[in-house]
Design the sequence.
């Protein structure tokens, strides 16, 4: 049956696309809509098979806003843009998701499905909305439920099952899938328009994954060849899945109910139906996988920036003290960091070597970013294009990856029922349509329900099986290294194993012209990447006066398809039967994730990723010379394979009392690539709450959801840093009236819990709004006043390039940007915490190498804090929240609010801020096979 689609895109940082221009008057719009509306096939009521394979006892739930339906015809898009009408199931999970923020305090187990969907297998006969046999096949049925429209795919053959999965994916996300296969190939602007946001998005991914068609195919061939029968099955599944997608493309094209964005972007004609929607091919799946892997599963990078800040520290303090200062800010293994494996077990990885070898630090001031864009014309060369390109480069080359996602898992020993309870899910941002889609798949060798990335949904990637559930958070351990290759002959030849070798030039030329969807004027450019055996060139510099190119080598580079085997295993009820088999399955996933598991008796955790075994003495924090002695052990440049740390050396656990993860440190001595794993991390918001629940015992699904929801509304700075800041301020009587009033407001807010929450549901006004404004204004001022005088301008700036100062919900900078929900992952909260506690004379484990606030003087520190607090108190809301295309200046609630960023033609309302997973499960299995 016809479903609905989308228009053009950018990612987390990218702004919501403009409204459709007023290219049609209202009367003609109505005529056009009437002509475009096509009759839908009548739903055939049918009962679902009894879910005898479901062992959750009605206690599994999930949620994924805004809604399952991510396709819209042209008529539906026009109705939405003009009248606000939503297609069926496009928005029906958004309000449910939003309401938890004000409704969680009175939550009981009986009310959980007021805020979540029942994720039991199957559909009750009285809840069937439609039943279809895609392409008239007799070996697969897609049933959709009335409440959410989620596809429940049941096949009698493996081929039919996967055909149905592909058909359902195209029904729900065809336009989005098309957008992201073009992103993965660096061809978004040609496909969807030349908006600066689209330019930035394609540049971000092309820089790090400039794959040719041959590269994409080679990854498929290698993944199949290296995995025996499972590899062959994965290939067969992928081909059947593609057949389903392409069958829907043909049916929707001939029936003229394809996504309307194809018309709005000029690919189809609404009158004659001229134009084509290209069939998907297997290499498109690898292009899609490369985007998702880069966004959420590729920890590392940033070695050149690390080197720059180290050199600045050594310039400021001298080599010995400067290195000590740098290490204290880096917090590789901070003893106060929140840990996922908290039983004291150590998993050394990425630790500082005693005698570093092969470091290739740049000469001061010599580093220049490798250009990506050449021969730009028109809007490809404008100011907005330049800004988008610079932002894309910074994101692509930085070590602060989009972490996100959280998990709370409690052992049955501490629950009311005696069965484990889990509340977990990924924070993948908020989009319309959503990057993920819900589905249930039942067929030979497959039995699962949950979420999958659109276009990669041949298997459920995060969800539940018959008697177990699993989820993931981004882990971020370092699987990316930077090599300095010595240049020879010219700037495009380098020494490889003693031979002067030509770099490979890879380029992609894109051009665009205005369309109805994107009115950006015509333009073009060529993206060019120079590739070496050690990966793409990212920077140019000199080292000891020698000209070098810095390259980036990722262990998952040229291996984007490998993880399919792990997901296949997770969906196989004959494979996953225990914590150990679960851990074995996720060991086949080469991206950097933390994986969590719960069944009726056990819980488990495992950290995945191909962690390269580095040469002895190599410090993963810094660039090393591109020489044999410093390469990954047994590295094969032809296949980019090497020795990887064995499974036993990855952080893992079975039946720990509880697990929490919010992209925090995994275990003792296990270093993550991004900075900020210190004494204050947003993981503490979960750790503190779950630890208290476990200590009290009798944990329930509702109490664990409450803990998550409470943390999701809490300002991390307020809960974990503000109390000590106020101790310093109140160490003497505050006599200044402005400062005293601000202190009173902050203390009142702190006593109320330090939350950013509405006064009542739908009020769009925060309780303690003025205190929140003051802290938002105060934080950047106090950080700069506290640290810049001691560090000096150069080192302070270098450290802020390693780690953002803050990441408030309204912050437009950072890896997620404004209106993205995810907040408080990256910031200087730990630095402020450790420094202020040191000035107060408190014991600090793993302190900063120096005292900074007031040079260590309590009175001088107090003066700094009061002075900046006064300035903050006098800073108006319109300055703190300057407004954007969605919000007027000074609108605090709106500035924080979450926007479903349009990747297509359908718009949704913004919702109140919550810092929680986008897709989320609540599970408590009652029995086991």
Sequence:
């Amino acid at each position: 049956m016809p479903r609905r689609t989308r228009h053009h895109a950018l990612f987390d940082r990218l702004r919501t696309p403009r409204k459709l221009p007023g290219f049609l008057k209202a009367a003609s719009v109505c005529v056009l809509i009437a002509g475009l509306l096509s009759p839908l096939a009548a739903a055939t009521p049918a009962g679902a098979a009894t879910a005898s394979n479901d062992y959750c006892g009605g206690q599994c739930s999930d949620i994924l806003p805004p809604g399952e339906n991510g396709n819209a015809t042209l008529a539906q898009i026009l109705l939405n843009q003009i009248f606000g009408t939503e297609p069926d199931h496009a928005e029906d999970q958004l309000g449910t998701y939003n309401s938890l923020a004000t409704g969680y305090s009175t939550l009981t187990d009986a009310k959980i499905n007021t805020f979540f969907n029942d994720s039991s297998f199957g559909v009750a006969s009285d809840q069937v909305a439609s039943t279809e046999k895609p392409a008239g096949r007799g070996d697969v049925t897609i049933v959709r439920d009335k409440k959410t429209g989620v596809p429940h795919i049941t096949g009698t053959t493996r081929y039919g099952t996967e055909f149905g999965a592909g058909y359902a994916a195209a029904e729900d996300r065809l336009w989005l899938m098309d957008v992201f296969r073009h992103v993965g190939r660096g061809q978004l602007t040609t496909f969807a328009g030349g908006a600066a946001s689209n330019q930035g998005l394609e540049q971000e991914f092309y820089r790090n994954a400039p794959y040719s068609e041959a590269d994409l195919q080679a990854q498929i061939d290698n993944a199949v060849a290296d995995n025996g029968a499972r590899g062959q099955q994965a290939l067969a599944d992928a081909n059947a899945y593609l057949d389903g997608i392409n069958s829907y493309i043909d049916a929707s094209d001939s029936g003229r109910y394809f996504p309307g964005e194809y018309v709005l972007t000029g690919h189809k004609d609404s009158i004659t139906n001229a134009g084509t929607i290209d069939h998907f091919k297997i290499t498109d799946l690898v292009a899609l996988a490369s985007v998702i892997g880069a966004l959420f599963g590729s920890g590392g990078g940033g070695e050149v920036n690390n080197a720059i800040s180290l050199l600045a520290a050594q310039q400021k303090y001298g080599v010995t003290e400067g290195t000590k200062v740098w290490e204290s800010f880096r917090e590789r293994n901070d003893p106060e960091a929140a840990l996922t494996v908290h039983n004291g077990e150590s998993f050394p990885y990425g630790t500082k070597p005693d005698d570093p070898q092969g470091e290739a630090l740049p000469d001061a001031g010599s580093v220049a970013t490798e250009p990506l864009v050449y021969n730009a014309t028109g809007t490809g060369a404008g100011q907005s294009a330049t800004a988008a390109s610079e932002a894309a480069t910074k994101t692509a080359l930085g070590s602060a990856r989009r972490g996100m996602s959280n998990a709370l898992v409690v052992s049955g020993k501490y629950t009311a029922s005696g069965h484990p309870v889990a509340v977990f899910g990924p924070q993948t941002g908020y989009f319309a349509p959503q990057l993920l889609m819900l589905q249930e798949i039942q067929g030979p060798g497959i039995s699962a329900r949950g979420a999958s990335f659109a276009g990669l949904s041949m298997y459920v990637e995060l969800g539940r099986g018959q008697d177990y559930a699993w989820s993931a958070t981004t882990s971020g351990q370092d699987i990316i290294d930077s090599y300095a290759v010595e240049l020879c002959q010219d700037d495009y030849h380098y020494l490889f194993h003693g031979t002067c070798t030509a770099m490979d030039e890879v380029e992609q030329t894109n051009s665009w012209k205005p369309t109805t969807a994107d009115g950006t004027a015509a333009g073009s450019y060529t993206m060019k990447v120079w590739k070496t055996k050690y990966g793409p060139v990212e920077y140019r510099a000199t080292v000891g006066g020698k000209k070098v190119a810095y390259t980036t080598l990722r262990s998952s580079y040229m291996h984007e398809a490998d993880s399919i085997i792990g997901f296949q295993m997770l969906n196989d009820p004959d494979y996953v039967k225990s914590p150990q088999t679960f851990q074995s399955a996720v060991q086949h996933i080469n991206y950097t994730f933390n994986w969590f598991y719960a069944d009726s008796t056990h819980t488990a955790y495992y950290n995945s990723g191909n962690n390269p075994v580095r040469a002895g003495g190599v410090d993963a924090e810094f660039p090393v010379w591109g020489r044999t002695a410093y390469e990954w052990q047994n590295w094969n440049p032809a296949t980019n394979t090497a020795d990887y740390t064995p499974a036993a050396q990855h952080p893992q656990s079975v039946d720990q009392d509880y697990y929490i993860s919010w992209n925090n440190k995994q275990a003792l001595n296990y270093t993550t690539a991004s900075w900020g794993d210190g004494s204050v991390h947003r993981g503490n918001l979960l750790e503190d709450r779950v630890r208290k629940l476990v200590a009290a015992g009798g944990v329930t699904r509702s109490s664990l959801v409450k803990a998550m929801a409470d943390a999701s509304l809490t300002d991390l700075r307020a809960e974990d840093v503000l109390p000590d800041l106020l101790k310093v301020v109140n160490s003497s009587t505050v006599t200044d009236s402005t400062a005293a009033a601000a202190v009173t407001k902050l203390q009142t807010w702190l006593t109320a819990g330090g939350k950013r929450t509405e006064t009542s549901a739908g009020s769009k006004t925060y309780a303690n709004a003025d205190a929140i404004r003051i802290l938002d204004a105060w934080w950047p001022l106090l950080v700069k006043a506290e640290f810049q005088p001691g560090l000096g301008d150069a080192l302070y700036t270098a450290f802020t390039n390693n780690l953002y100062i803050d990441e408030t919900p309204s912050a437009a900078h950072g890896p997620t940007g404004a209106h993205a929900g995810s907040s408080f992952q990256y910031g200087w909260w730990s630095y402020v915490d450790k420094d202020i506690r040191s000035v107060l004379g408190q014991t600090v484990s793993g302190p900063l190498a120096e005292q900074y606030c007031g040079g260590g003087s309590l009175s001088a520190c107090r003066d700094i804090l009061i002075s900046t607090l006064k300035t903050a108190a006098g800073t108006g809301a319109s300055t703190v929240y300057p407004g954007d295309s969605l919000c007027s200046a000074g609108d605090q609630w709106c500035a924080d609010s979450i926007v479903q960023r349009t990747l297509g033609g359908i718009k949704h309302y913004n919702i109140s801020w919550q810092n929680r997973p986008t897709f989320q499960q609540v599970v408590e299995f009652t029995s086991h096979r």
Remarks:
- The first helix runs from residue 26 to 36.
- Residues 1-50 have pLDDT under 50 and may be disordered.
- The chain has 27 helices and 30 strands.
